[in-house]
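Lest this sound abstract, we let one protein speak, letters for residues, whole numbers for local backbone shapes, and leave readers to judge:
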Amino acid sequence: MAGLNRSDLKGKAQTVLGVIDPDLLGQTLMHEHLLWDIRTPAMQANPDQGPEISLCNCWQMNYGSLKVPNNYVFFDRDIAIAEVERMRTAGGETIVELSTGGLKPDPDGLMEIARATGTHVVMGCGHYVDEYQDPANRDRDIDDFAAEMVAQVYEGAWGSEARAGIIGEIGCQSPWTALEQRVMAGALIAQQETGAALNIHPGRDADQPQEVADFIAARGGDTARLIISHVDRTVFDDERLFRLADSGCVIELDLFGQEQSFYGLNLGIDLPNDADRLHWIRRLIDRGHLDQVVISHDICYRSRLSCFGGHGYGHIFDNVIPLMRRRGFSEAEVNRIIVETPRRLLTFV
């Protein structure tokens, strides 16, 4: 398969099935997982992966009172196709899939889902947080990581013909490890080389999103093409939120559908619900940051899929967008958040 170069991609978007006109992307979810394994190494090593998910235990899993490793791994392509078809019926057209290194990316599966559903699937590249990375990565330098990500965009990722259309999600934790910082520096070089947007998974500390934004800016990165994920589980005060927005980066609220306050990954946090997320977006818009907001669900538990009793990928289109309209969001604002800003970010420069 012949490789691409920057001129081939400039002004285009790249899905797992090839290069397309960005105007075809339509309504876009900017942070999802279709096929994934987010079990920690300790979970994977435990022979007891827990019960199958049912309507009798789905709530306990989603609330966090029942920890089941089996909930955190999903590779059933047939179910994934059915879930994406439900999203298509609700109005979604594009999914950005960010199962990067350490989360067992399955590009061949993504291509099958895209073909079966007619959905544009944009795949990420790079590596997740330190704990999940291949031990061999500890001996790699910045330039090696950068070259790998450039090749994933231009040639193919994870041993497949599918090419990445975005860099990330690049994993960080707090405190930020040396390995994660090398991957991040490599991702920035790859972004500058390819013209792709860059998505970051920040650590669960209110100051780390800003730390990442400052890191990127200090190295000459384009913060307008930097997406900070999971802001709705990380930043909870206007001072930090507005300072982050003032850096020019894109604020991603991507836990829509998680309506409970309980957050098992950090018991000191009370998660917002969807109405709270919309209040945050309104405050950002009123301050002049409409062009810096994207939304998604970040589905990475089977219990959040509709066939297991969860909300599924269609939730934003079925429920959140109608709620936005009822809460006074204009059609232009909704379109900017769900169509225009994703299109800008997924267009190579």
About this structure: The domain at 20-346 is CATH 3.20.20.140 (TIM Barrel). The chain has a mean pLDDT of 96. DSSP finds twelve helices and twelve strands in the chain. Residues 217 and 223 are 7 Å apart (CA to CA).
